[in-house]
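The following block was generated as part of the benchmark described in Methods. Ligand: fe (ii) ion.
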Amino acid sequence: MALRPLLTRKTLGLRLPQLRGLQTFSLPDLPYDYGALEPVISGEIMQLHHQKHHQAYITNFNKALEQLDEAMAKGDSTAVVKLQSAIKFNGGGHINHSIFWKNLAPIREGGGEPPKGSLGWAIDTHFGSLETLVQKMNLEGAALQGSGWVWLGLDKELKKLVVETTANQDPLVTKGPHLVPLLGIDVWEHAYYLQYKNVRPDYLKNVWKVIDWHYSSEVYEKESK
Ligand SMILES: [Fe+2]
């Protein structure tokens, strides 16, 4: 019986599709219009921030994951390690912004209303009051050198609320594997410069008027059990 010639990529002269599907990420819709957070955050900032900055992190995250897939298929360990910083930066940018959009809401839809339920109690217990927490996050956010984020997180191991900052696009989990982000505030200049210029403390002072605690409360309820 004649053997069939072995069909390889070379003999077929084309690139066979990857056998396993590669997960890619896409830009999540905002749950409000770009101008809905005005006058606290301008529509121009929101549109650029979402359509350009967040989209760029996603595009570059997907590109890095594709390169990782190729490097893994080739068994190229150097290339795998080389891609880690691009994955952390762009993947972190996607994770952080996806949380940030959920932490905001127009004033008419509950933005700025203090947290209720168990998260409200936990904030009073750990920080004394919401005002003290806001002051602490504003101070730490203003003091952060360069670009980054200020977070309210839940330490699942110690069962306590924590305030942390992360540099660049590092997600909160880089500060500890048990940390769950509840509320993240973007203190990159792209988040405020067009409106607040170099005065980051004014942006931080105002942003609380459009902070929506529903998402934080839901995550807290789920993760603190
Ligand atoms: Fe940002």
